[in-house]
Design a protein that fits this description.
The protein has about 200 residues and is of the alpha/beta class. It contains 8 helices and 8 strands. The termini are far apart.
Length: about 200
């Protein structure tokens, strides 16, 4: 038996037309005491911005500009995450040092050459995020001298996956105030890490 469907009525719009914006972070200002998840880019909701491990720095920079992000996840075969690269990695001293040490041109430097490898990433567990507030994330970023923090979760199979990303610039936007990311450096090793991270 064929089902009968109803034709819905239509009408014309005789006024200016806008569109809905996501409510989180746009209509409700975020405070430091709110749950940390309010300022986390949740990869269950927002697709990850990635780039292939063999891409060059210009491609990575263009992708960051077009997607309005300052960090990319670097993928290799089967969407496996190999590491991360930030705008600071691309636009800072790292490319110049690599080019000098390896006698290569800028267009020959791949994201693989400057990335922070997965095994070198400092990550936060999703279980800790569930009980944290925005202020905790800000303090963590400041203490580490980082612009981003990676959040990992565990699948039902027991494997680790990247669940979310915190960005100091995004948090600043949502708070409506700039975050002072300067932190004291206590040793030469920390100074070196701060300069070349």
């Amino acid at each position: 038996m064929d089902r009968h469907y109803t034709v819905l009525s239509t009408s014309r719009i005789n006024e200016e037309l806008g569109f809905h914006l996501p409510s989180r972070g746009n209509h409700h200002p975020v405070t430091l005491d709110m749950p940390a998840q309010y300022v986390m880019t949740d990869l269950k909701v927002t697709p990850a911005i990635t780039i292939d491990i063999h891409s060059n720095l210009s491609d990575a920079n263009q992708k960051m500009l077009s997607q309005q992000v300052r960090m990319l996840l670097i993928t290799e075969q089967a969407n496996k995450i190999a590491g991360t690269i930030t705008a600071t990695d691309i636009l800072g001293e790292k490319p110049v040092l690599f080019m000098h040490q390896n006698a290569v041109a800028h267009h020959d430097v791949a994201v693989e050459d400057l990335m922070i490898k997965t095994e070198d990433l400092d990550v936060i567990q999703m279980t800790d995020i569930q009980n944290a507030c925005v202020g905790d994330i800000v303090e963590t970023l400041k203490r580490q001298g980082r612009q981003h923090a990676i959040v990992t979760d565990t699948t039902v199979e027991g494997t680790s996956v990247i669940r979310g990303i915190f960005s100091s610039s995004q948090i600043s936007k949502q708070l409506g105030t700039a975050i002072d990311m300067s932190s004291k450096v206590h040793s030469f090793a920390e100074l070196e890490h701060a300069l070349f991270a």
